[in-house]
Structure formats: structure tokens, C-alpha cells
Amino acid sequence: MGYMLLAQVPCKDEPAKKEMIEKYIEEAVSLQKNSPGCEKFAIFTNRNDPSDLTVYSFEQFTDKAAADAHMQSDVVKQMLNWLATRQPVAGDIKVSKLEVGEGFSVPTRAEADTHEDPFVAMGVLAYKDGTVPQSMPYWKDVVAISAEEEGTLSYGIYTNTEDKNQVVAWEVYTSKEYLYDVHAKSDAVQANVKNTGHLREGLKHTFLKKVGGFFKK
């Protein structure tokens, strides 16, 4: 079972945001070379709101043990020391700990890292208490059809280890148009909405722009 850390870092100003991105990129370079347990490590900003000072990171590991080893590594210790010294953050850093089971993710296409500007969508869904298991067969169908879509570069459905009623959809496309004109109109997506929409209490989409790191080793 894959293990993912999704971090949202609210920076206090534009210079701090720029430095935060640079530090994250340094970490990504180190992980790509030295951490076999790290499968993905990418850095993003808000695509639709340039005034948003949040820096997002998507970090996927083979398992929790690999993630724990990463958190004890020198590169993370250096990052934490820089955060304490530079103090670039305004507010609390939010880190979601997520898992993805077999059959709930699409192998990332190599094009995800070579594409000039992949369109990244992060959907956070809140479900009525105890209803996530009812939705998962429909999500599995969505993942299966996503694997056949040429314009879907990466797709995964993650459950939150600290919130049993939350699901995170992590999606990477060749373009915004492919998301809305092809993927969203697929029979599997429409069936998911039709049959499980009543179980949902909320859906928040954030559209992201990749600024560093890697989707695939």
C-alpha cells in the first residue's frame, strides 16, 4: 500500500514563498538520487490564484516505513533547521497522511515529467460518517477508465489515515480541457456522481501548477 504526504505550507510573503520552493526543489533532487523508497515528490503553487502564498508538496513513498525514514534524513533535518532560522511560514503547516490501496492508482506516465505544463487537480471530498467504503467500488471504476485515457497522466484515490470520512483525488492531465471534456464526461465518473453523490458532504478542488520535483522515477 502506497503512503503519501500532502503538505500545504502558507508562506508569509512572496520572497519567503520563492525560497520555500527553492528549498523544496533541493529536497526533491536529493530524494530522486538517494531515496529508493520515494516514488514521487513534486512541488506546486495555486494555478488559479497567484496571490495565494501557499506552497504545496506531493510526496509518495512505497510505504510508511520509507516515509518515516525520509523524515529522519539529513535533507529533512536541514529543511527543518532552515524553517526555524528563516521563519518563512505564516500560520500552521498542514500535512495530510494518505494511503492508496491496490487498484486505486494509475501508473504515472513518463510524459507527466516532460509535459510543459501538466494540469493538476486536487479534489478533497468529505463523506457522511462511515460511508467512504460504499463509494470505493465506484472510485475503482474511475481509476480503471483513467488508465485507458491518453490524456490522463496520473490518477490516484487516497484515503486519509487520520480522517476516515475523507478521500483525496489526485489527478494530472495534459490539459484542463482534457479533464472536463473527456475524463469528467466518462461513464465511470458520471456513475460515481450519480450513485454516491448523496453520500458526500463537500468537495473542494484546488488546481495546481508544478514548479519543481518529479512525478515518476
TrEMBL record:
Superkingdom in the source lineage: Eukaryota
Domain ABM, residue spans: 3-98, 119-208
Organism: Thyridium curvatum
Taxonomic classification: Eukaryota, Fungi, Dikarya, Ascomycota, Pezizomycotina
InterPro entries from the UniProt entry: ABM_dom (IPR007138), Dimeric_a/b-barrel (IPR011008)
One of the Pfam families matching this protein, by short name: ABM
Protein name: ABM domain-containing protein
